[in-house]
Design brief:
The chain is an all-alpha fold. Helices cover 57% and strands 0% of the residues.
Length: 111
Amino acid sequence: MSSQYFRTINVEPSAPQTLIPKDSKLLSNKISSISHLVSDLSAAVEDLETLDLPQLDDQFDFYEEVERFQISLIKSALRVTGGSQVKAARLLKLKATTLNAKMKLFRLIER
């Protein structure tokens, strides 16, 4: 076999690696990024769970399904916007007052 396929391995002990970066702002940014990623992944999993389509049978109620879908959209928009109703309303292309009224109607907030 040719020596081009082999690599020299240094067996000398190296200096211990620090697990905490010297720059605490960098660490804070990394933790924040991971936190956002976990939140986004959690939201994506929840969204996947709500994609179940109802059976169209005698028990099907169009208005209940529309309400369920609206609630799901509102919850997703609030999750994406960190709970901001104003930003969620913008995302859903609704007036903030309309979103607030729907949230009260669906008992997502207290009246």
